[in-house]
UniProtKB/TrEMBL annotation, chain A:
CDD domains registered for this protein in UniProt: ETF_beta
Organism field: Defluviitoga tunisiensis
Name of the featured protein: Electron transfer flavoprotein subunit beta
Pfam families registered for this protein in UniProt: ETF
Similarity remark: Belongs to the ETF beta-subunit/FixA family.
Entry-linked InterPro entries: ET-Flavoprotein_bsu_CS (IPR000049), ETF_a/b_N (IPR014730), ETF_b (IPR012255), ETF_beta_N (IPR033948), Rossmann-like_a/b/a_fold (IPR014729)
Domain Electron transfer flavoprotein alpha/beta-subunit N-terminal: 22-213
Automatic annotation (TrEMBL), chain B:
A biological-process GO annotation: fatty acid beta-oxidation using acyl-CoA dehydrogenase
Cofactor entry: FAD
Keyword Transferase in annotation: no
Stated name of the protein: Electron transfer flavoprotein subunit alpha
SMART domains the UniProt entry points to: ETF
Pfam families assigned: ETF, ETF_alpha
UniProt source species: Defluviitoga tunisiensis
TrEMBL record, chain C:
Protein origin, superkingdom: Bacteria
Organism of provenance: Defluviitoga tunisiensis
Protein name per UniProt: FAD/FMN-containing dehydrogenase
Database matches in Pfam families: FAD-oxidase_C, FAD_binding_4
UniProt key word Flavoprotein: yes
Keyword Coiled coil: no
Lineage of the organism: Bacteria, Thermotogati, Thermotogota, Thermotogae, Petrotogales
GO MF annotations, alphabetized: FAD binding; oxidoreductase activity
FAD-binding PCMH-type domain: residues covered: 46-225
UniProt keyword list: FAD, Flavoprotein, Oxidoreductase
Gene3D superfamilies: 3.30.465.10, 3.30.70.2190, 3.30.70.2740, Uridine Diphospho-n-acetylenolpyruvylglucosamine Reductase, domain 2, Vanillyl-alcohol Oxidase, Chain A, domain 4
Gene that specifies this protein: glcD
Cofactor(s) the record lists: FAD
């Protein structure tokens, strides 16, 4: 079986600061890592490989050269090889341009299953997976929390949807996005870490993919961030510095009573 | 720019024939936008059966297009995408909104990819750009630390909207509007998916989103054990317990209690934020609550900006006392 | 035993005048007083009610109140976050608890001198976080970092997981402002890293557990923040193998880890149940080491874990798991950090021992703990700091034993282990302190030193009003 896992490199901190004037991230010592939610996609792929001999897992990412590291994290969990789509012209891509680039690379390649995380912890859109599937013309199963059965031509999964679980099946090849509950990703061991470190990541630029420039990067992105700002939400509320906890409790009780909320 | 597309669409969600209230929330958003743009607001319904379809008009739609077919009983991304793609290409709306539910967040990327247009996920607010009439889509960005205004350069402009980010408009049964059935030939309903079953899972029932009162804890409660006070207070107020991402990450409480961008959005009647500083990520999940009370030691904590009553004080001193008084109240 | 005077309403009136704010004290309110009657050492077992709790806001208030108590012969118990594990802030003679919770300001972060000046009631983790925003690092890291106060850390000379590289709390303290038992305010040390002018009295106060005075200001040393960390989770088939690795690891890699933690099979069983997480090989191995390294960049980190991992494998590790991102690091440390909590889920008042031995003696003391466990038919999970030979055996109450019996029995069990540790060249407390629970053990194992300690105490606090009943 041929499996593809899509991963993304994300900043490894929650405290990304923004320059409000330019709307860009202040990259002071910004560390990055594989999107934590992609670990579940990688783990699920590796588990299939452990059951099905002859399975090959290819990790694919689009991003700057430094995203090699995220791919190597995936390899250290048991994937076989890595491909990085990297080109200065890919920079600034939104979900559509990203999905388009990924799908152009995948078109014509042999694969049975594509795995992706539910969403990335930086953008939090969760759109690239379903978009890639649509552009490749294959079915997509989102929010999968359990793979029930895979046969030669079909896959049956359980999806975590509002208020419960849905069991549904579709044909292969297809794209699966997984949620946290699906598994407990393994810690990579030294042997796999060293293998990943030595492994050569295939970098592919647009010289090779030859996608029209108006379909990639910022140019190919239908959505634009026009402004980034720290929200100034205000409720003309009352702020009291209390002298005793008792005072606080009285204030709270009065407020509740006054507004009649309970 | 020449106006090629016109009108605002919202995609209604139907569950077993009933309209999911998120559909009315979408209409509230859509109404504001369509009035600004002076265009029609249309609700789109794909279902196998429906009752009370007029309610969409009562909640603000000017028009409803509905497609009714047995094959639409379950959400199959390919069928839904094909039908909607055809409708959009035929009628050319300028804006399409869907809820950021598991269905909306699956359908919309598929549809946007097919329509070769852009899509913005999980919006919490919208504006219309004065000069261009373009839709400004507002959502938390970059781990929820900041908000981003996003504009789509192509048509239609598509977005998913956080459930509970706006209350539905009051129901107005005197409103009238057109309800039009759309029909397609059978091959449009063919799907590569096959639904097997659905099981409700009581354990993932979200009392959080149904509660009128939520008391939520952040790092300022200092230790895991202090959640017991919040739990007891919640019980006494018939409410539920929420938490910030930070304390969930530390393992103090389960993920199901997480409120915020990466957790749940809630809008109870009363939200009590205890020891929560108010990161944008968290505020995104609770700012639509009717009343907000917050307790925090730091007078500069951003949570105070969204609070109706802000108490600068040590949560670990106040909360046990609050519980004690509630208990005494019980005895009386 | 010394007799103390009661806190009369006349005294309370005087204190109210000093504090000028009635809200800074708790009097005759049983429920509220109760939360100042114990710490984390054994819950209700060791609790004693204070007569009065005050929460002063300035050092002057503390000074005047201490003076008053000294004149009126009223015992004082200074208190931090109440997260202590030896009973040092339990008011065993009643009297007044001085809680430092309102002295919680970070007064200054002096980046030019790499010093932070803080009040004792600052939560240690808050200090760590705030200095890290400036690219600086406070290297103290007790396991209770999220709840304990820096003042309490100094008073117990708290340790934690980073002691092997950075030393315990005392290593990071440059100065202290102390309200002495007679009410005088004295500053020892300050913003200086060297001082050979006379006796080093500063370090007399570090680990003094509130018996010599009350801290009102603390000067802490800051260092540059490490750029990146990597954590290794290393399972071993035997405890010996795990411990035998510690010294060679440092010799062969020539790198000092920032942590080498130890956790035994028994402990994993409980933490796994509590956290719902599973560690690789958890049913097959006897123990794990958690090893943390710090480096400036990715390359450095990769070199370190490669060198270290290969050494560990060569020396008998079953496997070596590498966590070099936040998610995986968190996974490993969650098991270690939740150790005590997961035992508390079984027995809310689980007592935790705190013995220290020369590192090479860990297998020997572990074997002894095993013997005691069998002899008393009591489960004793153990976790601790393998890098510095500091272990925490935590006997779990068998269901048949009554709480009253258990208090005695657990003290006997931990006492036996502690004395054995001392005989191996170790000590009966590594980082939790003596409080009042271990004072008999202190007397037994450090006889001559104990006498001199007592003499010092007598000189500085002749009326024995400052945290009486602790240490001695």
């Amino acid at each position: 079986m041929n499996i593809v896992v899509l991963v993304k490199q994300v900043p490894s901190t929650d405290n990304v600061k923004i320059d409000e004037k330019t709307g860009t991230m202040i990259r002071s010592e910004l560390e990055s890592e594989m999107n934590p939610l992609d670990m579940y996609a990688v783990e699920e792929a590796v588990r299939i490989k452990e059951k099905e001999t002859g399975t090959k897992i290819t990790v694919i990412s689009m991003g700057p050269l430094s995203a090699e590291y995220a791919i190597k994290e995936a390899i250290s969990m048991g994937c076989d090889e890595g491909v990085l789509l990297t080109d200065r012209r890919y920079a600034g891509a939104d979900t559509r341009a990203t999905a388009y680039t990924l799908s152009q690379f995948l078109k014509g390649k042999e694969f049975d299953l594509i795995f992706a995380g539910e969403r990335a912890t930086d953008g939090e859109t969760g759109q690239v997976g379903p978009m890639v599937a649509t552009l490749l013309g294959i079915p997509v199963l989102t929010y999968v929390n359990k793979i029930i059965e895979i046969t030669k031509s079909a896959i049956k999964v359980q999806r975590a949807i509002e208020g419960g679980n849905e069991v549904i099946q579709t044909t292969l090849p297809s794209l699966i996005t997984v949620v946290k509950e699906i598994n407990d990703p393994r810690l990579p061991n030294l042997e796999n870490k060293l293998r990943a470190k030595k492994s050569k990541i295939h970098t592919i630029t647009n010289e090779e993919l030859k996608i029209e420039e108006d379909k990639i990067g910022l140019k190919g992105s239908p959505t634009r961030v026009v402004k980034v700002f720290y929200p100034k939400i205000s409720r003309q509320g009352e702020k009291i510095t209390i002298k005793t906890p008792q005072e606080a409790v009285s204030k709270i009780k009065n407020f509740i009573k006054e507004k009649g909320v309970i | 720019m020449k106006q090629t597309h016109t009108g605002v669409w919202t995609i209604a969600e139907i569950e077993d024939g009933s309209i999911n209230p998120v559909s009315y929330e979408l209409l509230a958003w859509g109404k504001g936008l369509s009035e600004r743009l002076k265009v029609e607001l249309t609700s789109i319904v794909l279902t196998n059966k429906i009752k009370d379809i007029e309610s969409l008009i009562h909640y603000g739609a000017d028009k409803v297009y509905y497609v009714e077919n047995d094959k639409l009983e379950h959400f199959y991304p390919d069928t839904y995408t094909n039908i909607l793609q055809q409708m959009v290409e035929e009628m050319k709306p300028e804006i399409i909104l869907a809820s950021a539910t598991t269905k909306g967040r699956t359908l919309m990327p598929c549809l946007a990819a097919s329509l070769k247009t852009g899509l913005t996920a999980d919006c919490t607010d919208f504006e219309i750009e004065e000069e261009t009439r373009r839709l400004i889509q507002i959502r938390p960005a970059i781990g929820g630390n900041v908000m981003a205004k996003i504009k789509t350069m192509t048509n239609p402009q598509m977005a998913t909207v956080r459930p509970k980010s706006k209350l539905p408009l009051p129901k107005d049964e005197s409103r009238t509007g057109e309800i039009i059935k759309k029909e397609f030939n059978e091959e449009m309903y063919q799907s590569r998916y096959e639904w097997i079953n659905y099981k409700r899972d009581e354990s993932i029932e979200q009392p959080l989103q149904q509660s009128d009162v939520i008391i939520a804890g952040g790092k300022g409660i200092r230790k895991q054990e202090n959640f017991k006070y919040l739990k007891e207070i919640a019980e006494r107020l018939n409410g539920a317990v929420g938490a910030t991402r930070a304390v969930v990450d530390m393992g103090w409480i389960d993920y199901s209690h997480q409120i915020g961008l990466s957790g749940k959005t809630v809008s109870p009647k009363l939200y009590i934020a205890v020891g929560i500083s108010g990161a944008v990520q968290h505020i995104a999940g609770m700012s639509t609550s009717k009343y907000i009370i917050s307790i925090n030691k730091d007078p500069e904590a951003p949570i105070f900006k969204v609070s109706d009553l802000g108490i600068v004080g040590d949560a670990t001193e106040i909360v046990p006392l609050l519980l004690k008084e509630l208990k005494q109240g019980d005895k009386k | 035993m010394k007799e103390y005077n009661k806190v009369t309403s006349k005294i309370v009136e005087k204190i109210k005048k000093i504090l000028k704010n009635e809200n800074l004290l708790i009097y005759q309110d049983e429920e509220n007083l109760k939360s100042y009657s114990n710490d984390e050492s054994g819950g209700e077992y060791y609790a004693h009610m204070p007569e009065l709790v005050i929460k002063p806001e300035t050092k002057e208030q503390i000074s005047e109140i201490v003076k008053l108590c000294n004149e009126e012969n009223i015992p004082i118990t200074p208190r931090g976050a109440g997260s202590g594990l030896a009973g040092a802030n339990i008011p065993i003679y009643g009297g007044i608890v001085i809680s430092l919770e309102r002295l919680n300001k970070i007064i200054e972060i002096d980046a030019k001198n790499l010093v932070a000046v803080v009040e004792p009631g600052v939560v240690t983790n808050d200090l760590c976080r705030i200095v890290s925003e400036k690219g600086l690092y406070y290297a103290g890291y007790p396991m209770s970092v999220e709840t304990s106060f820096i003042g309490g850390n100094v008073a117990t000379n708290a340790g934690g997981s980073k002691v092997i590289k950075y030393g315990n709390t005392g290593h990071h303290i440059l100065g202290l402002e102390v309200v002495m038992p007679d009410g005088e305010i004295i500053e020892y040390g300050g913003k200086r890293r060297k001082d050979s002018s006379g006796y080093n009295l500063l370090h007399l106060f570090i680990g003094s557990e509130g018996t010599l005075g009350i801290f009102t200001k603390i000067y802490v040393n800051l260092i540059p923040q490490p750029g990146k960390v990597v954590d290794l989770l290393v399972p071993f088939e035997s405890i010996e193998k795990a411990i035998e690795n510690v010294a060679p690891l440092m010799r062969e890699t020539k790198v000092l880890p920032s942590a080498i933690e130890f956790i035994d099979k028994e402990s994993i069983k409980y933490t796994s149940k509590y956290t719902g997480m599973k560690l690789p090989y958890q049913d097959e191995v006897e123990s794990y080491l958690i090893i943390q390294y710090e480096g400036n960049n990715l390359r450095e980190i990769e070199d370190i874990y490669e060198k270290s991992g290969l050494t560990l494998q060569k020396n008998g590790a079953k496997d070596v798991f590498i966590a070099d991102n936040r998610t995986n690091s968190e996974k490993i440390w969650r098991m270690r950090r939740n150790w005590l909590e997961s035992l508390k889920a079984i027995d809310p008042y689980v007592p935790t021992g705190d013995v220290v031995v020369p590192t090479s003696k860990i297998p020997e003391i572990m074997a002894y703990i095993n013997e005691v466990s069998k002899e008393y038919k009591v489960d004793i999970p153990v976790a601790g700091h393998a890098g510095d030979g500091n272990l925490h055996p935590a006997p779990l109450k068998p269901s048949k034993v009554s709480p009253e019996e258990w208090k005695e029995l657990s003290e006997e069990i931990l006492g036996k282990i502690a004395i054995k540790a001392a005989k191996m060249g170790g000590a009966i407390s590594g980082e939790h302190g003596i409080g009042f629970i271990k004072k008999e053990l202190l007397k037994q194992t450090k006889e001559k030193e104990y006498t001199r300690m007592k003499e010092i105490k007598k000189i500085l606090d002749p009326n024995n009003i400052m945290n009486p009943g602790k240490l001695f």
